[in-house]
Design goal:
The protein is α+β, with helices and mostly antiparallel strands. 37% of the residues lie in helices and 23% in strands. Strands 9, 10, 11, 12, 13 and 14 form a 6-stranded antiparallel β-sheet that branches. A 5-stranded mixed β-sheet has the order 5-6-1-7-8. The termini are far apart.
């Protein structure tokens, strides 16, 4: 293994635990200790919805995100179903990010419920001090927001993210530089950010299922098979990923979210509730980041792994939710005209700018041609 630099970076990944469900439980103490599912209740006639988030009590029964709510109810008949409140989640997320910002040299939010923090300076480059720092951060989140988070600390963003998932919920995992290779070895390659089902299948075909397999695989062969992504995989496996924690400067080019289904689906009744939930969640992130958008894109990956996108743009920037829902629904119907089975669906907002003017009303927007 290559010699470590004289001053190793200390990077943390903070991931809120079952965020939507945890916020609902905080607001409704009578739900404490009960299995809670954020999503439409099938017992009230909502038979086509999907689970947005399940509390850890519900997960013990097998309920999980993106599962049909009907199936979640079958697995967990005692579950309390709660309709999502995206404006609340966005507000709480913004408050949490302010707490994280006070504890970071640099903060890079990576979603409504997670963020990377560079804490090299405030920890003096010491992983012993980083453990105390992480405990203080977790205590601050619990004290100020009555929520728990799981924290991973490592010398790279990629390893920190993997570490934050190891001891959920309310976990803390510190991976010192000299332990990276040993720590990563038994972990599935699917846990590496960017390795989706298709890439995992391709890796499995060449005998790579665990990160230990990556560590023992010739770097050049990975590059020949996967190009630059092969270099990234090999670097992550040895803790050599040097991606920086970058403070956002101005609006991002786009924001998006997607989900992969457990089985391929083809009907509007199955796909629209999931796409609607993704759209509402993404709009919550838009509100949280104080942005306006002009373009809505829907992404579909078919059962044969072909990936396609369709987009529509507005004549003016907007902060409204309704155009997102209407345009994403319209684009979905265009995809479904082919009668093909879908394994992944996603939505993206682009042509973003900072929100500097009052929210535009529906009478002010109209869609242009698609891409």
């Amino acid at each position: 293994m290559a010699a470590l630099p004289s001053r190793v970076r200390i990077v943390s990944h903070v991931d809120m635990d079952a965020f939507y469900a945890a916020v609902e439980i905080r607001e409704r103490p009578e739900l404490e200790g009960r299995p809670v599912i954020v999503g439409p209740d099938p017992r009230e006639g909502h038979t086509r919805g999907v689970v947005l988030t399940a509390s850890y009590e519900a997960r013990r029964y097998g309920a999980r995100s993106a599962m049909p709510c009907v199936e979640a109810l079958r697995l967990c008949p005692e579950a309390a179903f709660v309709p999502p409140n995206f404006s609340l989640y966005a507000k709480v997320s913004e408050e949490i990010m302010e707490t994280l910002r006070r504890h970071a040299d640099r903060l890079q939010p990576s979603g409504i419920e997670e963020a990377y923090l560079d804490v090299t300076e405030r920890c003096g480059g010491s992983f012993l001090r980083a453990r105390d720092w992480a405990r203080e951060l977790k205590a601050a989140v619990r004290r100020e927001h009555r929520l728990t988070c799981s924290v991973g600390v490592a010398s790279t963003k990629a390893v920190a993210k993997i570490a934050s998932d190891i001891e959920k919920p309310d976990g803390l995992t510190i991976v010192a530089p000299e332990r990276v290779v040993e720590f990563l070895a038994p972990i599935a390659v699917r846990k590496i950010l960017g390795v989706g089902p298709k890439t995992a299948d391709r890796l499995k075909e060449i005998g790579i299922e665990k990160i230990a397999d990556l560590q023992g695989f010739p770097r050049q062969e990975l590059v020949e098979t996967f190009g630059a992504f092969g270099e990234y995989l090999h670097d992550v496996a040895f803790g050599r990923d040097r991606e920086e924690v970058i403070e956002p400067m101005g609006p991002p080019e786009s924001i998006g979210t997607e989900t992969t289904f457990e089985r391929d689906v083809s009907s509007y009744e199955e796909l629209w509730p999931e796409l609607e939930a993704l759209s509402r969640s993404l709009h919550g992130q838009l509100v949280e980041e104080k942005l306006a958008y002009r373009t809505v894109t829907v992404k579909v990956r078919y059962s044969n792994f072909e990936t396609h996108t369709k987009s529509r743009s507005l004549k003016v920037h907007s902060t409204d939710l309704d155009p997102v829902l209407i345009l994403s629904q319209m684009l979905l119907r265009e995809f479904l005209a082919s009668n093909r089975k879908v394994r992944l669906i996603g939505v993206r907002l682009s042509n973003l700018r900072d929100r500097k003017e009052p929210q535009l009303t529906l009478s002010r927007w109209a869609s242009l041609g698609g891409d």
